[in-house]
Amino acid sequence: MILANIAGKAIGQLQDTVREIIEDNGMERTEAIRIAKALPSGKWTHDHPISLEEVKRLGLPALDYLPKEVYGLMELCPQAGRGRPSVQHIPAPYWPLQRKHGGRGERG
Questions:
Q1: Rounded distance, CA 20 to CA 40, Å?
Q2: Element (H, E) at 80
Q3: Higher pLDDT, 83 or 41
Q4: Partner residues linked to 99 by β-bridges
Q5: C-alpha 19: how far from chain center
Q6: What single DSSP character describes residue 40?
Q7: pLDDT (0 to 100) of residue 73
């Protein structure tokens, strides 16, 4: 319950920050609140890129190109290629292995 409480507070803080950024860039408050609730809703993981079409559906201004200067900056900081997802789901409770009769670890 403590972790759920902390997670809820973190989501609220993120929503407030996103709303402030969007409002500071000229969007009306009601629209900024709607978008700020959608982005950290859990629909996407942190390593999943949001498509241009989805960004536009959310109501955010977006371009389908970048200025040449941005590409020049990106070349200065190469990124590793995408491998396996960095978020894993463990479908069962996670607890330390317990040893039985000095043998290999078993859950239980």
A1: 14
A2: none
A3: 41
A4: 105
A5: 16
A6: T
A7: 93
Q: Which two tokens mark 35?
A: 């978008």
CA 44 to chain centre: 6
What would the pLDDT profile of 43-93 be if each residue is shown by its tens digit? 888 888 899 999 999 999 898 988 999 999 999 988 877 666 666 667 776
What is the pLDDT, as a whole number, of residue 102? 58
The CA distance from 44 to 53, in Å, is: 15
Q: Is 107 exposed, middle or buried (0-12, 13-18, 19+ CB in 10 A)?
A: exposed
Q: Where on the phi/psi map is residue 63: left (φ > 0), alpha (ψ -120 to 50), or beta?
A: beta
- Looking at the DSSP bridge assignments, the partners of residue 106 are 98
At position 104, the amino acid (one-letter code) is R
